[in-house]
Queue: 2 jobs
Job 1
Amino acid sequence: MEIHQSAVILLLVLCVSFSAHGQPEGYEHFLKQHVFGAMTVQKCDGEIHRRGIVRPQTTNGCKEKNTFILADKKHVNTVCGAAGTPEGIYRKSNNPFPMVICKLHSGNTHPHCKYRGFTDTRKIVVRCEDGWPVHYADDVIV
């Protein structure tokens, strides 16, 4: 039996489409900006730069604050279901998450933004689409 190259390509396309099935467009962006279980306060500058986290609407392009949730994506996803409570168009986590919060310390323009981080434990507030988190709206000190 001979396998044709076009059959292999079709199989690869189907695998890719099934792996992303049901996830809204903003989900991967949300993960890139806010979910990193191995984050530490010492990594603020490096991770924000490596992940290309910027605020284009500002005069200097530096994002004032970025929050990294110290959990895996499966745990964060549950906030859009039973582990979250509706609050208007958002959902607030029923339980707090450990996190690293990176705040802009100095820097004139992107990519020269410098951040200082601190750890905390807070409930998260996210916007969900079709059961997936797509926007980090806020956090609540517990």
Job 2
Amino acid sequence: MRKTYLFFILLFGIIIVLDSSLELNYPFSTIDSSKEIPVQKAGFLSSFETQNNFIEDDLFAQTKPDTLSWKLLGVIKYIKKPDKDYPDGVMFPIINSELKAKGKKKIVMSGFIIPIDNVSYALSKNVFASCFFCGQAGPETIMGIKFKGPTPKLKTDQYVTMEGTFRYNDNDVNDWIYHIENAVIVKGGK
């Protein structure tokens, strides 16, 4: 096993040395000095960008959603406050500043589908057998889902990636703490 690791380390070292020693030689004598040197960009945006005169940074700033993680959603504290429905008080979430900044913005989130009733679902960090209302986690490990358009037919514990608008709730104890609204399944929908 140790020989295999050493082989791959050596192989990657050789590749890095070869890559750093290669130089791109443009035929500068044939390029007009008043024009830019042609640079090829990776990905789909280079052709899209040049055809439509978009600036790549502006395009991404407008459309690229943030990816949320369950770890970030789990950075939460609670404070006991009085509530009209709960005379002994109830634990209200204190949302961290990083999540507050993502409020009402486009996000991407992955998780397991948990049926709530016959018509609604939630997105969970854990599978149904380990979700928070089964006693294995806290309420910060689940997100309410409001789909854009009709609610699709989904299976329990189906792993999906969704894109939508992030909303947090820090004042209604009868609602989820986190929500994804206008949700669209971008991966794992079938």
